[in-house]
Amino acid sequence: MIRLVAGRLATGAALLVLLSLLVFVGVDLLPGDAANARLGASATPARLAETRQRLGLDRPVLVRYADWAGGLLRGDLGTSVSGTPVSAILGGRVANSALLAGLTTILLVPISLVVGMWAGLRPGSRRDRGVAVASLLFVAAPEFVTAGLLVLVFAIGLGVLPAVSLIPPGAGPLDRPAALVLPVLALLLLHASYAVRMIRATIAATVRAPHVEFARLNGEPPRDVVRHAVLPAVLPVALQVWLLTAAALVGGTVLVERVFGYPGIGEVLVTAVRTGDLPVAQALVMVLGAGVVVALLAADVGVRLSTPTLRTAEQPAPVAFR
Amino acid sequence: MTAPGLVEVRDLVLCAGGRTVLDGVRLDVAAGEAVGIVGASGSGKTTTALAVLGHLRDGITHVAGTVHVAGAPVLPGRPPRGVGYLGQDPGASLNPYRTVRAVLTAAGGVRRDRAGVDALLGRVGLPAGLARRYPHQLSGGQQQRVALAIALARDPGLLVLDEPTTGLDVLARADVHRELASLRAAGVALLWIGHDAETLAANVDRLVTVADGRVVASGPPEPARFTLTSEAAPAEVVLAASGIVGGYGATRVLHGVDLHVGAGERVAVLGASGTGKTTLARVLAGLHPAAADTVTVDGATLHPDVRRRTRPQRAALQYVAQSPSEALHPRQPVRTALHRPLRLLRNLRGAAADAEAAALLEVVGLSADTAGLLPAELSGGQRQRVSLARALAARPRVLVCDEVTSALDPGTRDAVLGLLGRLCAQDGLGVVLVTHDVEVAATADRVVVLAEGHVVADGPVPDVLGGDLLPGGVPSHLVELLRPDVADPTVRGTVNVVPSRRAAVTAPTVVSDDSPPTG
Amino acid sequence: MSRALSRRQLLRYAGVGAGLAAAVTACGSPASAPTVVGSGGGGAAESLDPFISGTPSDYARNWTVFDELFAISDGNPLPRLAVGVDQGDGAFTVRLRDGVTWHDGSPFVADDVAYTLRYLASPERPVPHELTGFLDTAQVQVRDPRTITIPTLQPVGDPAMLFAGAGMRVIKDGATFAPGGTAVGTGPYRLGAFEPGRQARLTRYDAHWDGAPFADEIVVISLDDPSARVNAVRTGEADYAADVPFTVARTGAGGDDLEVRSAGDTQRTSLGFVMNTTIRPFDDPRARRAVRMLVDRQALVDRVLLGYGVTGNDLFGHGARYFDDTVKAPATDVAGAKALLEQAGAVGAPLVVRSAEYEAGMNGSTELFVEQLKAAGLDARAEIVGVQEYFAPDALAATHLLTFPLGPFPLDVTYARSAAFPTLALNDAELKTAVATAFSTPDEAARAAAWKTAQAVMADRGNWIVWGLADTLAISRRNVAGIEVRDSAKYPYLGKAGLA
Amino acid sequence: MRWPGTRVASGVLAVLLVVIVVGPLVAPYDPAAPVGLPYEPPTPQALLGTDALGRDLLSRILDGGLPMLGTALAGAVAGSALGTVAGLLAAWWDGRSGRSRWVEGAVLRPLDTLAIVPPMLLVLLILTAFTGHAGLVLAVALTGVPLSARVLRAAAAPVVTRAHVEAAVARGEGPAWIVGRELLPLVAGPLVADLGIRFVAAIYVVTAAGFLGVGPSGTDWGTLIVEALPGVELAPLLLAVPVVLVALLAVSVTVLADDAVRRSRAVLA
């Protein structure tokens, strides 16, 4: 297990390095640059050149990359082209986005499991179809539309929840829990629906599995069958679904954050990319990429731990070539 | 029927999607009686057995008739108490997520303590030490005996057995048969759905034959015997393989195997699961890279990789795979399956190929119209015949057959084996018959027994397969050969754990970066 | 301000990006929400440095914390920290206000102004300040604590207007604006808690030289999404949001205590297209005039602005002093336009109209404008790009028309900006002379005449199509009062705001 | 399990496709030209009312299906095709050699770098580089390739070891026959399903890009949704019509993709 984790971490780190290089060079190739964006209508070729020199944009891209990578190793995320250290821009925002993603994931686990079981234990029943249709609809609707409708209903119509996430300076979203309700709800409707679909399908398949039929035929009570035979089979899949959802929520909160003016990374991410603020974009790629790598690693380890055939194998599972 | 039976099935009619599956079945089992049900695939024998348990699989509806167990109606949906069930695939029947102890502790809806679990294991001849293992850490025979222990958890007066030894190799089969025999002796009634009448004969009091959802015969079984013949006529050697060493990654499964086949000779390669039989066949066919091997056909050495063999060499040695469902491309008609080798290996096309294809189909006992059909429109036996015809299309000198009959019902199996015999006799074809089935091996001229990747016996059929028969029709001499380290084959607790292939397949398959390794 | 404003108030103002929302509430009830102003884009990059200000929230906050030498009020310079300016030879002398103190209690002196000038000319700055093109900041002389002499690099006719147009705030001698630090100004509010891109809390500075402000506290909130700004006010979380979409005016404020306010005629934003005179066909004045004769300005106003605005006269600078509103846009005359195009040899020439949505309605107006050109038989096509690459010089040089919005800035600013890019500029000797004169002459009448000439040139053969003057709308609680417009209604001056 | 939704979904999709393909031909007005004032309610002349610039919503809806379908389909097909090539390569070499997994290392691992970038970030980066529909197509393709490759590798792995494939190899069939006739027909189910999923993701990317202000303008349904947001209180139909259409498209394709997976399992069973 330790070897597995170490191996995956090494792979993840290698991926992040490759990724940083790709993005650094990629963003650099974009038309227009930070100097253009900063000067806007006041740009003249002379001022552009001067600004580029001041920002160090006139050096070769690989030299700038090496500079940046060196800084990263010392824990320095660099300086935004606006002159602000990247860590100051990202600091609290990454935590806020993580809070949004984390809360959604935590709520999603019991909801998707209960709803998925409620529907999947009776495959083809009316409630099963109801859940299937509802989850499909929520998966199909863009979350910013869902979020907008939630605002219309709960904030403007009923006036029970805030329409925007106004978090005072020095406070965190947790100090204003009401502000979290609608953003989390909007994210939940999308991601829980996806999780419900996957878990429902797994349960429906497991209910028909031979080992479940065998247990039933030999008189195991239905509750025990669910607890001992169905749930353990669903768990590895559910774990994967949950952690993959968590990975998707890393950077997947952008649209909802924008609707609610939530102080997360969403707005920074959009602005940084659009204004060619390379250091901020780079740092975000690394932070988010690392988040995804960790979530995927957790999914891998979780599946191994929850699947006896994999857990007890000293080596990768035996080959099934014939 | 005067005495009230333990099981009374009366005029049972079950339908699935408008098709009648059971058409007025009448069946009785008295207390302590062992009744066998035989019939071809799809004849309704499994459906009957499940109906006795009050269980109808998805899509099956109860139309008419009654099923009573111990005087109580069980249909619809009122499962009887005191009936145990054992299916044919123990690897799939056992809950892969729980240890044997956890399963047995709560089996049958009754909680029992450690001693109770050990006692249950003892009843099926397993040591208590096995309880901490997961199902995939058990051999096939042990798995099936654990499943039997679960079926016994409620102390049933009746056991419903659905082909309980079909998926097992010779050793496991012997073990399970022995335990079932002792239960029968203890007065447990058995409703045993069997593969073929011969195997069941020794185990049941009465044999019921079903066909097309009806009971067509019922009566005492005839004791089985298979005839061991030997026509060991020395012939020129067409296939010679020596020093085959191979495996997967670091795991070695073949340790220097030698094999030779004469023209017109059938050589069976017999062994338990995981002894490297299939690997051997694939090494011969050039489909599996071996660490060391020398394979010659008619004296010419073949390249270990089939893709590097010459065209005549490829044609000379043909391989027929195990599963009829995978042997043929599900979207290509039989014609394509036959035309391609004719075109590539014999340069026949157009009308000439059509004529040859028709001839090949006739050789394997299929009509010429079969050429236009898709595999899904064929039965398992027909598919296996097409698969044989495809191999024969190359005009091979040697045919390597890997468990070609294991998925077939007995009638079809005998027909295919007969066909192979004819081909040997008529065309001087050498055949390698890889099998785990003693009855199949018994039809060969010579038997090579493989254990732990070594050849442990090589000789004429009577020499190797002679001797007393253990329950389940396994010769005791063979068991000694396969278990050289265990003098008494009935000693409990096999040490060598064969990783179950099915266990790997049940691993979750959500697609992600980190889906569990499959290789 | 005849209204009596409550003294105990909390003003909430939220902004991020392209718009601004402000709200004011009484702070007597702690449950009441803060004041809001909205702005957009780059929220997290918001800065306390008034010379880096880039978002409406930045402006709203920094304009309240700091004071400028001169402000613009109704198009005219309004003395603030300066009380007057005297022209000299190659330099001018600024007289400073007495009795002004910084938020830390120290007195405001000429050295602060000198430091400010050096600061904004520092090579460390990411962007050179536009004043560095006019002032020789290295040679500034402090005469006494109330007097400072500033040499010029080129003649400056109206220094007060130069400072007002540049919006130069004065910072304290030695000030730096490290992230996480604070800002000390002379303005009506001092900076309290601040988190870039989220909120700034501003508390009343009672010792302000212009009289104590009204609200106890102003909260400036950054919100990127225009709907979010409106929603913040509608749901009572903010009191005022500036620069809200026209649809809000159409739907109504959404509550009895809410109203949609317009900043008024002089605060309208001029929206238009600029023709590239460096390439065909607009190097020919007849082609320029022809297109100006094709545009249906009213149709654009009705649709892009939903009617919240009026048609323009093809001149930027509406609302500024010296703006010539007697000029009329050419009358719509499709036949005449086609004749002109034929004379110019421009019939069938492809026209690319480049646009980016850096001001609401830019892309919409481009789409409709292109439709109008097509309807007149021209081969026009819209090229809609991201904000970042909009000003990429190569692309600008290859495009025929581009969208261009300008606020009610002084004409100096308007003409300087529109000449900054070769593609935007009109290369016309008479225009250049007139603008140079207007910049440099200290004589009021001469300046007025020069601007008149410059605008006449633009009206005759210019490359501007200013089709509309857009209202600047805000949504506000009815009791919010005292919100004034200085530089732009998109980020109003909150120094006198309060709850009535 | 028989799922009646499949038939309903096929019907809905068929109707939508007809609307999408025929739409531009039957649109009553030029979708780009204003026919009235903005946000007019439905009238006999403009059956669904007018949009934010006074253009006929019905005409824009009818005109906007094809670009949306085109963009989404092109992106989905490109992503799926690249993924299929990578997945088949990995399944074939790694699955058959039984020893090394170097193709996975050389082909799938680099794709993983794409997989760990949050899709919205990837979309933003790509759309900044390549504006317009080409950028969207590329964005959809690149966000989809890693997953498609894994889906296809998983689907192809059991197929490459099937006996009929080995028989084809053993009798000396060339790569064209093996890939085109032996493998592709059997991974077609997962391939179609993956394509469906990519397509739905593409629709999402198109709308999300518009919401973030980086999408191309035009009449495609995603853009219509985004354009409708500011005026939703004035003209709810502006939002409701494209949202419902997009949701119907996404749901019906998802249902059919699920069905394709089910049926492909049946073929291989």
Automatic annotation (TrEMBL), chain A:
GO cellular component annotations of the record: plasma membrane
SUPFAM superfamilies with a match to the protein in the record: MetI-like
Topology in membrane: Multi-pass membrane protein
Protein origin, superkingdom: Bacteria
Residues passing through the membrane, by range: 98-119, 131-158, 178-196, 233-260, 280-303
Pfam families per UniProt: BPD_transp_1 (PF00528), BPD_transp_1_N (PF19300)
Keyword Transmembrane set for record: yes
Record InterPro entries: BPD_transp_1_N, MetI-like, MetI-like_sf
Family of this protein: Belongs to the binding-protein-dependent transport system permease family.
Name used for this protein in its record: Metal transporter
TrEMBL record, chain B:
Domain ABC transporter positions: 7-237, 239-477
Organism encoding this protein: Pseudonocardia sulfidoxydans NBRC 16205
Keyword Nucleotide-binding: yes
Taxonomy, superkingdom: Bacteria
MF terms in GO: ATP binding; ATP hydrolysis activity; transmembrane transporter activity
Cellular component terms per the entry's GO annotation: plasma membrane
Keyword Nucleotide-binding attached: yes
Protein name stated in the entry: ABC transporter ATP-binding protein
Keywords: ATP-binding, Nucleotide-binding
UniProtKB/TrEMBL annotation, chain C:
GO molecular function, one term: peptide transmembrane transporter activity
GO cellular component annotations of the record: ATP-binding cassette (ABC) transporter complex; periplasmic space
Domain spans labelled Solute-binding protein family: 79-385
GO BP term, example: peptide transport
Coiled coil: none
Pfam families linked to this entry: SBP_bac_5
SUPFAM superfamilies: Periplasmic binding protein-like II
Protein name listed in UniProt: Solute-binding protein
Lineage of the species this protein comes from: Bacteria, Bacillati, Actinomycetota, Actinomycetes, Pseudonocardiales
TrEMBL record, chain D:
Transmembrane segments: 12-29, 72-93, 113-130, 136-152, 195-214, 234-257
Protein name: ABC transmembrane type-1 domain-containing protein
Predominant localisation class: membrane
Biological process (GO), any one: transmembrane transport
Any single Gene Ontology cellular-component annotation: plasma membrane
Keywords (A to Z) from UniProt: Cell membrane, Membrane, Transmembrane, Transmembrane helix, Transport
PANTHER family: OLIGOPEPTIDE TRANSPORT SYSTEM PERMEASE PROTEIN APPC, PEPTIDE ABC TRANSPORTER PERMEASE PROTEIN
Recorded superkingdom: Bacteria
Record-linked Pfam families: BPD_transp_1
InterPro entries in the record: BP-dependent_transpt_permease (IPR050366), MetI-like (IPR000515), MetI-like_sf (IPR035906)
Keyword Membrane among record annotations: yes
Annotated membrane topology: Multi-pass membrane protein
Residues covered by the ABC transmembrane type-1 domain: 69-257
Location relative to the cell: Cell membrane
Assigned protein family: Belongs to the binding-protein-dependent transport system permease family.
